[in-house]
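Section 3.1: Structural characterization of target chains.
Under the original work plan, the team committed to producing a structural model for every single-chain target entering the pipeline before any wet-lab resources were allocated. The record below documents one such target. The sequence was received from the expression subgroup and is listed exactly as submitted; it comprises 275 residues.
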Amino acid sequence: MLIRQSISNYKHFDLGNIKLAFTQVCEEDIFRNVYFASNALYYVEAGSAVLYSGKDEVHIQKGEIAIIKQHSRLDIKKIKDKNGSDFKSIIFYLFPDFVTDFSKQTKQAKETTSLTANVIHLGKQQSLKVFSESLLPLFENKQLKQNDIKEKTFAALQYLSQHNKQLLHFLTVNSKPIKIDLYEFMIHIEVNNYSVQELAQLTGRSLSAFKRDFYEVFETTPHQWLLHRKIDYAEKVLSARQMKASDIYFMLGFNELSHFSAAFKKVKGVAPSQL
């Protein structure tokens, strides 16, 4: 989970096979062991970031973008802008089926040279800046059409691939289903971001195989495990008085505050307000 005291604002938007995450950090901080379950575009809207992958460091300045390989774990240092304003980033999580569709529709000779790093710096592109900033109304709780966002993301990825001939090959190769260790995957993901079907896809399994393997590892169903992990996290945040139930219920995947309160009471025996 990304909620911590240094974060002043975090929003997550589920658009099917694209997911968006907006983060605003009010204090300079290092986020350890951040897990990327799918390929992701990481755009810095304000401030700067340093992405650490093993011995490699990738520095991303304001207006720059990087691509991160799926199943990567990184340390990320987030730095305020020089004028003292908060760090802001937009992350585009690109699911394998989106990449497959993109690859089919992109009429471009495929580069066969592999990019092996977990993080690739794509630099600053003016059109990408305009595209990313066009999404900022979402961060301010204003509505944008899902289809428009998907089309813009598709167009932005086409632009990037035209300026980096290896990008399409990188995305295609790293979106192929790979059956990965289920325990390691589940303990590192942000549980609020994914459905059970998506988790199956990201771990290289059919839905039935995922449920079967999951029960063998955790001795419960994916739904129950995810629910309990969300409620445990909510209890920790609410007990520390870092946030209120009304601040976190949507982030945790509940459409209504009443649904979150009922689930919390069923698991913990008390209402979240009693904490």
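The chain has a mean pLDDT of 86.
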